């Protein structure tokens, strides 16, 4: 990515923030100041006031002379010309008077905010807004030379104050204008993080999707009902009305020939869970579960367990000349499964499950106020939806998978922090008990008794962890220690954070001793294991070898004073200073690459790409660095594995 691409992407994102901001201030700040009288005076119209309404000569059609044919209606904030029939809102009037044609409504809002509400926006038009963003990015680039777009996320030209600055207009004795800035006494609604243009594009794409239309309009033709009911019963212990109510479909491979493009393999042998838009209720995408997916020796088969499909993708050609259609994914992070169905409920307690099937199982048991993001994460947009429809006073029950790799529960902690920072205070993390099954449907299939399952759910909820964040002081100790990424810190259960701090402090002390490999010690999971390390003899290759220098008999726990000293010890010795690679990532990269290659990775890859590379090294996933050094030649994956991590694969039984 070069600086011009960063500028382009940054402007696209900030345009969404601008439109969101203008929508928020429209009713509170702009509209109250746009009145018939103010419009008449500002545009110097030939007008009179009759019966409480301002009337004037129409400024839009030629030959107008009647002072009463054009009227401003303050009650409806609208205007009408009874002669030429031009009409609309006050903002449309401003747009017409100013000659705005491109993005006229938002241009009118900016103009009105400055000239009628007297807000200090620091920009006077959309083009000026874009230019100021560009200049700020270039200024940052000149100082940092960074080509990582994350280093530009904090740049904004929108007002940063909690309340917009209002310019009050006064006049000097010589009639010259003085503008005084003061805070408005009206408190605006909080600024949302949602990219409105991404959501709007998702809706537009759904409306234009060929695949969605033909699947949903010909559901009976494509749905293998018997196979659907059999799979849902055996895999999730879900049956009956729930399947029908939520429009589930079993797309058998034999039905592929009926598609507009039969050489599309994205739906074959999959159960389809349609996702609805929370506003309109239209289907915006298909969340698909492969029915033949299974694990073999810890590795998944070639196809992904889940995929999120919007439409036919690009037509691709194999080396042997065979052509097939890829997948176009939908923006699942903009939506929540089952939100449309419950958005008008009086919700006091909301269940959030990782999987859609778990959500459906809860609903079938009577826990109707349940939603699912369809992934092991909750995006900012989805959190904003919860705030918008239910407010922050509800109790949120995070019911994610209790899997062996701990991804679901680590993500639960991260999500709990995000919810807390968004204003939610009643957060409980619920999980199945060890040995029962990793999620709700696992247990449902195991016991096949819904009455007993309801009792278990109530028990899990009762024993759930009432989330309370770790103190800022404790978090900062770990964040500043150099041993963790931000994501890792916010995945630590707050109840365990003091032990984690003690571990870090001890590791720092041990790293100062000659012969200690701090990166190896970091892999030790708890402080007890560290304290139980025994004497290390450099010539002894037995299993009892430890990372102590010769002559050390044992390691004793640090005293309180030593712990306090460790807190301020941030010295690190590295042979090369990396801009984007952390110590933990460097340790993993050294297992595969020489130092020159690692330097090249640091220079050419973004931090997000480096995280992806390290993840593949840890999990033994083969890859080529050219995928990251030359991304323009690399086709991003559309399928995901059981942990919702993207993978680039094709069904092994494709006919090519």
From TrEMBL:
GO molecular function: DNA binding; DNA-directed RNA polymerase activity; zinc ion binding
GO biological process terms held by the UniProt record: DNA replication, synthesis of primer
Pfam families in the cross-refs: Toprim_2 (PF13155), Zn_ribbon_DnaG (PF01807)
Recorded superkingdom: Bacteria
GO cellular component terms listed in the entry, alphabetical order: cytoplasm
InterPro entries on file: DNA_primase_Znf_CHC2, DnaG_primase, TOPRIM_DnaG/twinkle, Znf_CHC2
Domain Zinc finger CHC2-type: 53-101
Matches recorded under PANTHER family: DNA PRIMASE
Identification of the protein by name: Zinc finger CHC2-type domain-containing protein
Organism: Herbinix hemicellulosilytica
